[in-house]
Amino acid sequence: MKSHFRLTFRLAITLALATFEFVAHAAEKQTPNIVIVFIDDMGYGDISPFATNQYSTPNLDRMAREGRKFTDFVVSSAVCSASRVALMTGCYHQRVGISGALAPSAKIGIHEDEVTIGELCQSKGYATACIGKWHLGHHAKFLPNRHGFDHYFGLPYSNDMWPLHPGNVAKLKENPAAKSDWPSLPLVEVHGDGEPVIVNADVQPRDQEQLTRQYTERATQFIRDNQSRPFFLYLPHSMVHVPLYVSDAFRGKSGAGLFGDVVMEVDWSVGQILDTLDELQLSSNTLVVFTSDNGPWLSYGDHAGHAGPLREGKGTMFEGGYRVPTLMRWSGKDGHDAHIPPGTASDRLASTIDLLPTVAALIDAPLPSHPIDGKNILPLMVGDETAQSPHEVFYCFYGNKLEAIRSDRWKLHLPHRYRTLAGRSGGSGGNPANYETAEIGIALYDLDNDPGETTDVAAQNPNIVEMLSNYAEHARFDLGDSDPQVKGLGVRPAGRL
User: Fold this and answer.
1) Marked catalytic residue, from 93, 135, 165, 416
2) DSSP character for 393?
3) Are the beta carbons of 211 and 217 closer than 8 angstroms?
4) Which of 128, 122, 98 is nearest to 110 (CA)?
């Protein structure tokens, strides 16, 4: 049964749409359009605003010149579904009951009582679209059109959740009579409150080659179709998640292998978005955010990116796993006081969970009545020189396990196991290498001076260890912990069939 807030929120959306012409006219003058480009598995060292690579990313370089680079921007957890639900709801994934990466067999998804960025925007008369990978539940009740989006087109989960997964291929090669571990991969489209339509029931490699281009074409068309009203575009690309695919236009273009080709096509996609906004004279009134759901999937070697100077990658809560390359652009002219200063950078701690409350502030939408964890980071975005991170601490959960606590400067790892290649190279040609399991005890790192988490300084800073350990107890009380077994009082359930 839907909560009273949910019903009230739906009524607000209905009333807003009923008076659309008035709201749209006001919003056009007062509120910015919002575009969030969300890349899959892109590491901190994968694009040239953050690292030197063999391939070029001219459009992302342009975003950095025309906007602001965030060098300490993190996600809730270094894995797909958990990261995505956190971005959408402004909450730690642990609070809203979704961890890991939901498989096609999953019977859960985002709960109907959660409020997404899309729903906030709809309440203010915005046109909304999600184009790309959703991964917050593939059943009809969990899809984007039930959670704040007028239109959805894309893959409902990761592009490797299909019969051609390397592990499945090896299994069937050994035993052709065995049952596939994965169903066929569908491409889905849905409008409004309608039922989802399967555009392609069995996506093949040749189809994946066109995904980045298809997503981009639909994204730019959405902008054109809604240029006279405020809009929110959420563009979660399937790439650079394995398996890697690229269109003919970019195959071999980077000279740095398939991964470089795929990054260059994603960069091209960003350029198409920016060019369309420029052409329609919407750039001054559009906030564009570029970020990633987690760091690189290192076991895939030459089909994976890299974390630059940061330790480890996807699947860990070391910095290489959950700190992601992030750029924002919004010139904010045409009467707006707020804008993002060009060619600047922020090294203050901020997160994808901050996007919902920041968007709410920008468009004057009410925050959800239930608790959220994100903070308004507009002062950091607009270059306020006095602005500090709004997070006194940040909780680093992987799955349901609290693995670390950090402040803007310090990071305390709590005892846990983690996966690592232990200095070995990853796999090649789309086949992963095996991880090893390692353990870490209590360890403190000074991220201002040691972002690579190489030197444990716990012994020299007992007061910092004690302070962050106390915050860990607060985190467990509110959000729980799988080890020790603690049920958090602030945890809400995931949606269920």
Assistant:
1) 135
2) -
3) no
4) 98
Span 266-317, pLDDT tens digits = 999 999 999 999 999 999 999 999 999 999 999 999 999 999 999 999 999 9
Instruction: Give yes or no: 191 in active site.
Output: no
Q: Which region among 29-38, 103-112, 132-141, 323-332 has the lowest average model confidence (pLDDT)?
A: 29-38
Q: For this structure, is 80 an active site residue?
A: yes
* 51 alpha carbon, distance to own chain's centre: 20
Cα distances (angstroms) measured from residue 225 to each of 83, 129, 152, 230, 271: 30, 11, 15, 11, 19
Is the distance from CB of 69 to CB of 327 less than 8 angstroms? yes
Digit-coded pLDDT (tens) for 56-94? 999 999 999 999 999 999 999 999 999 999 999 999 999
Q: Cβ atoms within 10 A of the Cβ of 459, count?
A: 8
DSSP state of 333: -
- Please report the DSSP string for 346-374 in residue order: E-S-EEGGGHHHHHHHHHT-PPPSS----
Distance, in Å, from the CA atom of 384 to the CA atom of 390, rounded to the nearest integer, reads 13
Cα diameter, the chain: 67
Which pTM was predicted?
Answer: 0.94
Please state, in angstroms and rounded to a whole number, the distance separating the CA atoms of residues 59 and 175: 47
Task: Return the sign of the alpha-carbon dihedral for residues 68, 70, 75, 76.
Answer: negative
